[in-house]
Amino acid sequence: MSGLILTGVKPHSGVSLVHLALTLLFQKKRKSVSPVASSLAQASVLSRVSRRFCPNLDPGILSAQQIKDSLARALVGADIVTIEIAKHDDAIALSEEIGASVIVVVDEELLLSEPEITNFVLGKGGAGIIVNKATKNYSGVLGTLPVLSSKIELASEEIASFDFVAKALSRSSLVELSDLAEKNFNFQEIEGLAKEMKVGMTPTPELRKVRIGYADDGCFCFGFKENLDLLRFFGAELVPFSPLSDGALPEKISGVYFPGANLLEYSEHLSSNKSILSSIYNFYRDGGVIFAEGSSTAYLCETYSLVPREGGYQGAKVLAGNAQFQPGFAERQEYKCVEESVFFQVGSLVRGLVNHTWQLSHLGGIWSLLEGEASDGRVIVEGFSSAPSVLATFGFLNFASNLSIPKRFVEACLTRR
């Protein structure tokens, strides 16, 4: 159960790029690597590259024990776990909690302007340094990463970068990044720093009980990846499908999971695929279990609009109302369940993100299951439903903060099978 922590001493040090490079290098060395991040957008990128459901270890959302449990799940089937923590202090605190070594990424410009930064890093619990944007070799470091000839545009270090959903990763840039890491990283020394971690109990996935379809294409790809992994651990066979190109939902499924979507880019294509919109509505009408988050909630509405006072796009009609897009932001949020459903018990708590970018208008037939309190004291109403088997939120719930949610999701699908 070995792992490493990567962090920086200042924002924009290049930690995400170095983490991506290290992930590619471990893969090149035939090692099964499970990358983890504290940024929702970066976890999404690492999932695409590693083909694993990368957990999001945000200490503002998960407790210390929940982080340990997530790491235990990340270790299943992996040789090593690499953990990206944006803030240096958070990384050191996590290192003291789980016993993993900390590798610090330092930008060359900072290293030249503040040479004492090396002693600071090593004195504050760092096990070694990787220099980013390096123009020369350095002694006493774990490696250097020169500037790439072709830019890889990674997400910001914000808790959620929704505009990042549509950005592609160039294969040629990934190949170059992998080659640079192999040439300039001391792989043996880095691998040797990996220590056995103190994590939660290693979970045993349950036998497959039900089939749950999940939207997975260039549009539907944003959210907490461990949500899918937790459904799998509780007995779901996950079946991917594409609302962009498929004509119907997968056969013999009992539930559907819609991750966050990039409607700003794909609304016209989605609304023209009438056959799958009809398939989703029929699945809902027949009592199918549906969970949706982010902009996917707008997609499930009768209509959704991207520009104020202009005509909207046709949705799946699971929620009889209109969703209106508005520029907004995301912030961490704790919700309390105020209405019973197949997903929650009244009074249970779940943490995640609230996304202030959509406004729902409806005439009735929709009720809210969740309530939260904003930093200014306002009550946030979320978790919209048109049937006990439907939960749609414009925010993002982290199932790891309340394991009863994925468990009840699977159990609800069992009753419909």
Quick summary of this structure?
The chain is α/β, with parallel strands linked by helices. The chain has two domains: 2-196, 3-Layer(aba) Sandwich (Rossmann fold), CATH 3.40.50; 210-416, Class I glutamine amidotransferase (GATase) domain (Rossmann fold, 3-Layer(aba) Sandwich).
Topology diagram in text:
Elements: E1 2-8, H1 15-28, E2 33-37, H2 40-50, H3 64-74, E3 80-84, H4 88-98, E4 101-107, H5 108-113, H6 117-123, E5 126-132, E6 143-145, H7 171-184, H8 187-193, E7 195-196, E8 210-215, E9 220-222, H9 226-233, E10 236-241, E11 255-258, E12 260-261, H10 263-272, H11 274-285, E13 289-293, H12 296-299, E14 301-305, E15 313-314, E16 319-325, E17 330-337, E18 349-355, E19 358-362, E20 367-373, E21 379-385, E22 390-393, E23 396-397, H13 404-416
Parallel strand pairs: 1-3, 1-4, 2-3, 4-5, 5-6, 8-10, 8-11, 11-13, 13-22, 14-16
Antiparallel strand pairs: 1-7, 9-12, 14-15, 16-19, 17-18, 17-20, 18-23, 20-21
Helix pairs in contact: 1-2, 1-7
Describe this structure in words.
There is one protein chain. It contains 13 helices and 23 strands. It is α/β, with parallel strands linked by helices. The chain folds into 2 domains: 2-196, P-loop containing nucleotide triphosphate hydrolases (Rossmann fold, 3-Layer(aba) Sandwich), CATH 3.40.50.300; 210-416, Class I glutamine amidotransferase (GATase) domain (Rossmann fold, 3-Layer(aba) Sandwich). The chain is globular.
